[in-house]
């Protein structure tokens, strides 16, 4: 962007000072072109200054290169953040999996549990009650 700003300053600085008068204005104009927001206004002003063909080639080359770099930069940031989030999620899942494994409850078949309980149980003993007839009278 800096190199294209210097080229724009030397090519169009005297004729189009509004967009290419200083290095700062030139860089800002090129930033507007990279974002593809107001590049038509810059193109129209270059056309009014008499630099339609040269200005069009200059801006097309810069927008093409700048859009690829800018798009790749945005994609790289998004992909990097996505990779960090996935790694963090997997790290959290592994920690959760380890704690879940240590707290795992052993399950048993219900029929086997009832059979084991029946073998361990002592039979019910009914006590012998004597009937006292004095209380009834």
TrEMBL record:
Localization per record: Membrane
GO cellular component, one term: CatSper complex
Gene Ontology molecular function: any one: voltage-gated calcium channel activity
Ion transport domain ranges (all copies): 1-83
Membrane topology: Multi-pass membrane protein
Pfam families xref list: Ion_trans
UniProt KW keywords: Membrane, Transmembrane, Transmembrane helix
Broad class of the protein's primary localization: membrane
Protein's GO biological process: flagellated sperm motility; sodium ion transport; sperm capacitation
InterPro entries for this protein: CatSper4, Ion_trans_dom
Transmembrane segments: 56-80
The protein's name in its UniProt record: Cation channel sperm-associated protein 4
Organism for this UniProt entry: Geodia barretti (Barrett's horny sponge)
Source organism phylogeny: Eukaryota, Metazoa, Porifera, Demospongiae, Heteroscleromorpha
């Amino acid at each position: 962007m800096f190199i294209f700003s210097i080229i724009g300053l030397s090519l169009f600085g005297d004729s189009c000072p509004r967009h290419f008068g200083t290095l700062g204005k030139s860089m800002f104009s090129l930033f507007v072109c990279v974002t593809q927001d107001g590049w038509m206004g810059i193109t129209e002003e270059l056309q009014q200054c008499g630099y339609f063909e040269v200005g069009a080639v200059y801006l097309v080359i810069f927008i093409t290169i700048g859009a690829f770099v800018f798009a790749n930069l945005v994609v790289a940031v998004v992909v990097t953040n996505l990779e960090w989030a996935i790694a963090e999620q997997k790290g959290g899942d592994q920690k959760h999996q380890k704690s879940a494994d240590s707290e795992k409850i052993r399950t048993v078949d219900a029929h086997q549990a009832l059979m084991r309980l029946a073998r361990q149980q002592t039979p019910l003993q009914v006590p012998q009650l004597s009937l006292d007839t004095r209380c009834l009278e």
